[in-house]
Amino acid sequence: MTSLNFLSQDTIVALATAQGPGAIAVIRLSGPEAISITNKVFRGKNLEQQASHTLHFGTIRDCERLIDEVLVSLFVAPHSYTKENVVEISCHGSEYIVAEIIKILLREGARLAEAGEFTKRAFLNGQMDLAQAEAVADLISSNSRISHEVAMKQMRGGFSAEIKNLRAQLVHFASMIELELDFAEEDVEFADRTALRNLIHEIQKLLRHLLQSFELGNVLKNGVPTVIVGKPNAGKSTLLNVLLNEEKAIVSDIPGTTRDFIEDEVSIEGIRFRFIDTAGLRETEDKVEALGVERTRQKVEEAALVLYLFDVNTTSPEELKAEVEDLKTAGKPVLLVANKLDAAADKLIDFGSFENLIGISASRHQNIPELKKAILSQVKTAGLQDRSQTIVTNLRHVASLEKTYAALDDVLNGIALGISSELVASDIRRSLHALGEITGEITTDDLLENIFSKFCIGK
Ligand code: GDP
């Protein structure tokens, strides 16, 4: 339910900037009383007589006690993020000042905002649809060029426009078929079944593209889980350190010391790779290490990309083959990395028959740019070339797209079987319902609660 006149009675307040001391903090209010409540504690101009989108210097006082000098920005309804009256108070970024100002505002009639409540109001007041609201959260947490680009496009309505277009086409057919129901006795067909079938095939093709884009979308949003496997002393920690450019893993000469999993992220050309260092797969009697082997297998299972690192001086091609088979990578991309080439440059020739193999020296930083390039090429980046393609990044959207697809299958089957218009119409309505969940034409309180509770307070 999107309504343009969702009118909240409450005026909410929250810190909009990050917790903790900073140069400036911004406290935000939204609701019918946002301006009048602020006006009660603000000394300066009468805020209730000022125009929207103006900025006012003054002080905040608790009775006569001066709390801070502040700048107040005014946004008069409906010209604000939430479409309600909004005030933003920029104060000095002391946690004490922030707490004091919020306390006074609460006393004057505001209440603390819940998680995501500002954005929820923006949605309920028709400022943005649900997919756009979700993109606000993605935008705030975006941490690479590409995840930023995808979130920005979704927030500005690119994805929503595509979904709405699909819906509009289906609505047209649904109404034609429903019209047939009114003339049931006359046995007429207003909706051309061939055209409908073609349309559904078109829409399903688009849905397949969108669903396929999720694999990439997920990678962009969450990073590529990449596991580094290799025997103790192969140089895994050293390589990880080189990739991370800092000493996060413990490098040691004692085999089997990397028992813990160290996870960190490296961005290669805007894509994040989450590296997981493992204990390796050495068959062992040592109980602690045996546990490590089991966990290594588990990490390989969870990974999207496996780097198998080996010491080129102590590993024979036969051994490498056996080790990699033992990994049971189940079709996952595996990049074989021959390390310690500095000590034996000519050894690489022995491994000429292996595909996806690259020689490096981790400790001497040799061939690292080539390794990064090879890592990048293992990820399906085709979709990234075409900037106009919509990329789905949200699991909730995937579920709705799948439901739409299945309902459209039912429509096609229904037409093929020549079932009644009524049943065809009902299947189309089901597909419309599923599509509508994405942009929020169809919502439930639970769904909204689920989405907005994941936001921070103040968003
Ligand atoms: P891990 O057990 O696989 O994590 O291996 P480490 O990263 O702890 O490295 C084991 C030993 O190999 C350390 O003494 C490293 O300095 C050494 N090492 C790592 N990379 C190279 C390399 O490229 N060349 C040489 N010569 N030694 C290396």
Automatic annotation (TrEMBL):
<keyword id="KW-0479">Metal-binding</keyword>
<feature type="binding site">
    <location>
        <begin position="233"/>
        <end position="238"/>
    </location>
    <ligand>
        <name>GTP</name>
    </ligand>
</feature>
<dbReference type="GO" id="GO:0005829">
    <property type="term" value="C:cytosol"/>
</dbReference>
<feature type="binding site">
    <location>
        <position position="257"/>
    </location>
    <ligand>
        <name>K(+)</name>
    </ligand>
</feature>
<dbReference type="Pfam" id="PF12631">
    <property type="entry name" value="MnmE_helical"/>
</dbReference>
<keyword id="KW-0378">Hydrolase</keyword>
<dbReference type="InterPro" id="IPR005225">
    <property type="entry name" value="Small_GTP-bd"/>
</dbReference>
<dbReference type="InterPro" id="IPR027368">
    <property type="entry name" value="MnmE_dom2"/>
</dbReference>
<dbReference type="GO" id="GO:0030488">
    <property type="term" value="P:tRNA methylation"/>
</dbReference>
<comment type="similarity">
    <text>Belongs to the TRAFAC class TrmE-Era-EngA-EngB-Septin-like GTPase superfamily. TrmE GTPase family.</text>
</comment>
<protein>
    <recommendedName>
        <fullName>tRNA modification GTPase MnmE</fullName>
        <ecNumber>3.6.-.-</ecNumber>
    </recommendedName>
</protein>
<dbReference type="InterPro" id="IPR004520">
    <property type="entry name" value="GTPase_MnmE"/>
</dbReference>
<dbReference type="InterPro" id="IPR006073">
    <property type="entry name" value="GTP-bd"/>
</dbReference>
<dbReference type="InterPro" id="IPR025867">
    <property type="entry name" value="MnmE_helical"/>
</dbReference>
<dbReference type="Pfam" id="PF10396">
    <property type="entry name" value="TrmE_N"/>
</dbReference>
<feature type="domain" description="TrmE-type G">
    <location>
        <begin position="223"/>
        <end position="380"/>
    </location>
</feature>
<keyword id="KW-0547">Nucleotide-binding</keyword>
<keyword id="KW-0819">tRNA processing</keyword>
<dbReference type="GO" id="GO:0042802">
    <property type="term" value="F:identical protein binding"/>
</dbReference>
<keyword id="KW-0963">Cytoplasm</keyword>
<feature type="binding site">
    <location>
        <begin position="252"/>
        <end position="258"/>
    </location>
    <ligand>
        <name>GTP</name>
    </ligand>
</feature>
<dbReference type="GO" id="GO:0003924">
    <property type="term" value="F:GTPase activity"/>
</dbReference>
<dbReference type="Pfam" id="PF01926">
    <property type="entry name" value="MMR_HSR1"/>
</dbReference>
<dbReference type="InterPro" id="IPR027266">
    <property type="entry name" value="TrmE/GcvT-like"/>
</dbReference>
<dbReference type="InterPro" id="IPR018948">
    <property type="entry name" value="GTP-bd_TrmE_N"/>
</dbReference>
<keyword id="KW-0630">Potassium</keyword>
<dbReference type="InterPro" id="IPR027417">
    <property type="entry name" value="P-loop_NTPase"/>
</dbReference>
<dbReference type="GO" id="GO:0046872">
    <property type="term" value="F:metal ion binding"/>
</dbReference>
<feature type="binding site">
    <location>
        <begin position="277"/>
        <end position="280"/>
    </location>
    <ligand>
        <name>GTP</name>
    </ligand>
</feature>
<dbReference type="GO" id="GO:0005525">
    <property type="term" value="F:GTP binding"/>
</dbReference>
<dbReference type="InterPro" id="IPR031168">
    <property type="entry name" value="G_TrmE"/>
</dbReference>
<feature type="binding site">
    <location>
        <position position="233"/>
    </location>
    <ligand>
        <name>K(+)</name>
    </ligand>
</feature>
<feature type="binding site">
    <location>
        <position position="237"/>
    </location>
    <ligand>
        <name>Mg(2+)</name>
    </ligand>
</feature>
<feature type="binding site">
    <location>
        <position position="252"/>
    </location>
    <ligand>
        <name>K(+)</name>
    </ligand>
</feature>
<feature type="binding site">
    <location>
        <position position="254"/>
    </location>
    <ligand>
        <name>K(+)</name>
    </ligand>
</feature>
<keyword id="KW-0342">GTP-binding</keyword>
<comment type="function">
    <text>Exhibits a very high intrinsic GTPase hydrolysis rate. Involved in the addition of a carboxymethylaminomethyl (cmnm) group at the wobble position (U34) of certain tRNAs, forming tRNA-cmnm(5)s(2)U34.</text>
</comment>
<keyword id="KW-0460">Magnesium</keyword>
<dbReference type="GO" id="GO:0002098">
    <property type="term" value="P:tRNA wobble uridine modification"/>
</dbReference>
<feature type="binding site">
    <location>
        <position position="258"/>
    </location>
    <ligand>
        <name>Mg(2+)</name>
    </ligand>
</feature>
<comment type="subunit">
    <text>Homodimer. Heterotetramer of two MnmE and two MnmG subunits.</text>
</comment>
